[in-house]
UniProtKB/TrEMBL annotation:
It comes from Phaeobacter gallaeciensis. GO terms for cellular component: cytosol. This is Crp/Fnr family transcriptional regulator. GO terms for molecular function: DNA binding; DNA-binding transcription factor activity. PANTHER family: CRP FAMILY TRANSCRIPTIONAL REGULATORY PROTEIN, HTH-TYPE TRANSCRIPTIONAL REGULATOR ARCR.
């Protein structure tokens, strides 16, 4: 059974926060709430989707296994973020697997409950589309970073996203292990270590799973700089 604090996180998620209270109450009453330990599978690639998932606490990764056996991390989700909307509404096989990368709590909303409400009130479909669009925008942003930014710039952006808005200085705890951070940013673990070293001159100090950022504006300038600018320097 979910506690009120868990339900509050669910209500504030992008998926549910724009819905009328009566619809939210209906979905929460039919949802299944589950705890997962680190490394535990939430679902596997090619399993048939039957629910939309909302992270209540902790971190979850979506990944694909290539024919060679290598793992490609597609996305990482945390508190208040949802995933699996598009395939759930059509009961399609999952194109990815989901795994808890920390101990986490996940709410599963049966797709049948969502479809039933959409038939009653088509406006609910707008909320689902908004959530799906957010995922698409995130994937486009990831692709842009892979194409247009250096590894160190991608790490800088990752660290900045962990900082509080408008903070001039920031101390953050890395939310999950460095191997996953590297995979999430399209890098090898050794490349991530070199990227942390390259960020020292712009005020970043990393010790184990802790990062100190002395000047977020300076780090932002570094993250947004055109890599081609360095080619013209003597």
């Amino acid at each position: 059974m979910a506690y009120e604090s868990q339900k509050t996180v669910a209500r504030d998620s992008l998926l549910l926060r724009s819905l009328p209270d009566t619809h939210v109450g209906t979905l929460l009453s039919q949802a299944r709430w589950q705890h997962y330990d680190r490394g535990e599978n939430i679902f596997l690639q090619e399993e048939t989707s039957q629910a939309i998932h909302v992270v209540i606490d902790g971190w979850v990764k979506l990944f694909r296994i290539a024919p060679t056996g290598s793992e490609a991390v597609v996305s990482v989700f945390t508190r208040g973020e949802s995933f699996g909307e598009a395939v759930a509404l059509r009961n399609l096989p999952y194109p990815v697997s989901a795994e808890a990368v920390t101990a986490c709590e996940v709410m599963h909303i049966p797709s049948s409950a969502v479809i039933s409400l959409i038939k009653q009130d088509p406006e609910i479909g707008v909320s689902i589309l908004a959530s799906a669009f957010t995922h698409l925008h995130s994937l486009v942003s990831q692709l842009e970073q892979l194409k247009a930014r250096t590894g160190a710039q991608r790490v800088a952006e990752f660290l900045l996203n962990l900082c509080a808005p408008n903070a001039q200085q920031c101390d953050v705890t890395l939310p999950y292990d460095k191997m996953l951070i590297a995979a999430r940013l399209g890098m090898k673990p050794e490349s991530l270590s070199r990227a942390f070293t390259r960020l020292k001159p712009v005020g970043v100090s990393v010790k184990k799973n802790h990062a100190e950022i002395s000047d977020t504006l300076k780090l932002r300038e570094y993250a947004d700089a055109d890599p081609a600018d360095s080619w013209s320097k003597p």
